[in-house]
Amino acid sequence: MNMLDLTIVTTVFLTLCVYTFVYKESAFWRFAEQTFIGLALGYTFVLAIQQILTVAWIPISTGKNYLFIGALILGFLLYARFSKKHAWISRWPTAVLIGIGTGVAMRTVVEGQIVTQITATFLPLVTTDPLKTFNNIAIVVMVLSTLFFFTFTGGKGKAAGNVRTLGRYTLMLTFGAAFGGTVLTRMTLFVGRFTYLWAPAQRYYLLAIGAGMLIILASYEKISQILTKK
Amino acid sequence: MAKYLSLKDYRWIYFLLIIVVSWPLLSPLGLPVPVGKSTKMAFDTIEKLPPGSLVAVSSVLSGGNWPDLGPPQTALAQHLFKKKMKIVFIGAVDEAPTILETTLLPRINKYGAEYGVDYVNLGFIAGAPDVAEAAFATSLRKVLTVDFTGKPLDQLPIMKGVNTLADFKLVIHIGMAEDPVRQYYTPFKIPLIVGVYGMMGPHYIPYLEAGQLAGMIVGLRGAAEYEYLVGFVGEGLQGSDALSMTHLLVAVFVILGNASYLYSTRTRTKKEG
Amino acid sequence: MSTFPRSQVPLIIASFLATFMILEFFIDLPILRTVSSDIQSWGVVISAFALGIGVITLIRNNVGIVRRREKDWPYYLWCLVIMFTMIGSGLIGPLGKHPIFLWLYNNAFIHLSSTMYSILAFFITSAAIRAFRARNIDAALVLISGVFVIMTLAPVGAVIWSGIPLIGQWFLDIPNMAGMRGIIIGIGLGVLSLGVRTILGHERAHLGGAGGEKQS
User: Fold this and answer.
1) Scanning B174, B186, B242, C36, which has its CA 20 to 30 A from the CA of C120?
2) Measured between beta carbons, which residues in chain A are less than 8 angstroms from residue B198?
């Protein structure tokens, strides 16, 4: 078996191991699951080392920026969480990450997510096109009612309740669109895998390995049933 | 009918799904692919750029999301190379630079582009998306001293004079859209195109309508549209028919399931009445 | 031991850095920009160290299972073997360029990763026929909007009836856009309030999970 065949056998076999999960949780699935976890963490670890070397170690070793020694120390302090007695030390580098992340997100959220979106809601409520007029009015009313839906203090009474109901209906339509998008993503991932499996180079491997695995699984199920009856 | 639709062994549904997705892949249906507004906006934005413009492409591409994000990024990269843009690839996750080299770039025609001069892979920046993207946008030279091959940035002609995102003419982000809107568009007001997961497409329409995005490519469907515009047959167009049939199956199942539910509710009401 | 280094110091660090990153953005001084970019680089380095926590956690967990010969222990041993193979091959020579490392990544990891996520397609299809029911008006609105958007996002919708993409696009551009805009504004306000709580030291969630004692 040359290298190309082994590659295709490996890819098709591992893919089908995962798909046996929908038939029945099996040894194939457990094997694929643990292989995935091991590979994922191994890969992440190597790239993390690479990042630490390029960002911090090279400037330190070339004398360009000794301040990164502090970053390395803080990084190692993260592992204090594995010690029951000294775990609290890992809060310091965590706090650094929280502080940077909070500041970086906060400084642009006002313009990016609040002001610009509110400004974009200022639409002309009377235009020459009746459909556009209707749509603009619908957008303004729905945005306001959605925002009102999220205010849980103040605004009691029937009128306020009706506005909140409109807000809730708007959100239901939004979630319906989100559901449509979710179907797109799930099916895209599925189509992507089968595009690979049914490609000319892989399809006969797919049929052979798939048939073999189904026979093994069905036989195992049958034998288990017979042994259980005995 | 209700009895058949509520069978306890639902593996027949899985088998049907496999049939429905396999059939168009083995025998393409040739369904037309209408081009959406957001995809056309993205295409026109790149078409208007002068050749040689510096473009940043950041992505969260990984093995797990390749079917959803890979085709949009592939189609965009193909367009950029075709238009002779200078492209700087950067990853916001650890897998992105590897999958770019091993999977994406071998699939496209680079039109004679030279590494280091016309395009570069800068590797990835660790951290939460906001932090990594802010670091890339404002402190590029501090967080990236070498490219993915280990070559110092100073030795790469394409990186000459490039210090922050302000030096770029266009930014493309493949992944979620909130972070690049906050970290790329809001501070620098550079045109931003995003390639997003299918399920996030509806979520980001407000950004498109507010003018914060110069275009949006939504998952495999958007990639198919973009490939059609660029004249490139990739995974988008290849999977378009299968995608259509699976969507049709889900829609039919929802309708059938609810028809069965309404029928059984009415029957129960009649019996009780 | 005093609670100052355990509880107060992390709050002060987070508060100071958040405030500094915000001020640097609005005050145009080169020295602030330089310090800010250094701080962000530190964040990148610390984040890279955080990626190693998963490896150590896995080793501790799996070694314990293998030693105690718990159920399915050979799989956990295999997990360790494959992880160390990946790490070992990745660290030989130029980092992450060894042929074994790249072969495992391209021919095992990518395919496993894609397939794991794609399994959800089976479950969403079975849920479509078994679980998605319009039991009330709210659910009905979700399903009507959902079905039209599903058929709009697939090219086949336009082939079945030209009105499907028109109606579906209307659902996307008007009620979906309006609802999402409300949600985006709400999220923005939430990020602001969480940030203010962090700066004022009222946000202590990130203190949990390490230290063991009650938060003060």
Assistant:
1) B174
2) 181-182, 184-185, 188
Give me the pLDDT at residue B8, please: 61
Residue C174's domain spans which residues? 133-216
Q: What pTM value is reported for the model?
A: 0.86
Q: Do A138 and C175 touch (CB under 8 A)?
A: yes
* Shared-domain flag, residues A106 and A84: yes
Q: List the single best residue of A55, A62, A191 to mutate versus B (max B Cβ within 10 A).
A: A191
Please give the pLDDT value at position A72.
94
Q: Test B198 with A44 for CB contact under 8 angstroms.
A: no
Residue from the list A48, A97, A188 with its beta carbon closest to the beta carbon of B67:
A188
* B138: nearest CA partner in chain C: C37
The C-alpha atoms of residue B214 and residue B217 are separated, in whole angstroms, by: 11
Q: Testing the interface with A: which of C110, C111, C187, C200 to mutate, by most A Cβ within 10 A?
A: C111
Tokens 């491997």 belong to A205
For residue C100, is it within any domain? no
Quote the CA–CA distance of C156 and C160 in Å, as a whole number. 6
**Is the Cβ pair A188, B220 closer than 8 Å?**
yes
Whether the pLDDT of residue B1 is over 60: the answer is no
Which structural domain, as residue segments, surrounds residue A180? Answer: 125-197
Q: Is B199 on the interface with C (CB under 8 A)?
A: no
Q: Distance from A175 to chain B by nearest Cα, in Å?
A: 9
- List chains adjacent to chain C, taking adjacency as at least 3 C-beta pairs closer than 8 Å: A, B
Tens-place pLDDT, residues C60-103: 999 999 999 998 899 999 999 999 999 999 999 888 889 999 99
Which of A22, A35, A77, A194 is best to mutate for the C interface (most C CBs within 10 A)?
A: A35
Cβ-Cβ pairs closer than 8 A, A with B, add up to 150
Per residue, the 3-state secondary structure of chain B, as one string, reads CHHHHCCCCCHHHHHHHHHHHHHHHHCCCCCCCCCCHHHHHHHHHHHHCCCCCEEEEEECCCCCCHHHHHHHHHHHHHHHHHCCCEEEEEECCCCHHHHHHHHHHHHCCCCCCCECCCEEEEEECCCCHHHHHHHHHHCHHHHCCECCCCCEHHHCHHHCCCCCHHHCCEEEEECCCHHHHHHHHHHHCCCEEEEECHHHCHHHHHHHHCCCCCEEEEHHHHHHHHHHHHCCCCHHHHHHHHHHHHHHHHHHHHHHHHHHHHHHHHHHHHHHC
C107 located within any domain: no
Identify the CATH assignment for B37-232 out of 1.10.1740, 3.40.50, 2.60.40, 1.10.940.
3.40.50
A194 vs C211, residue with greater confidence: A194
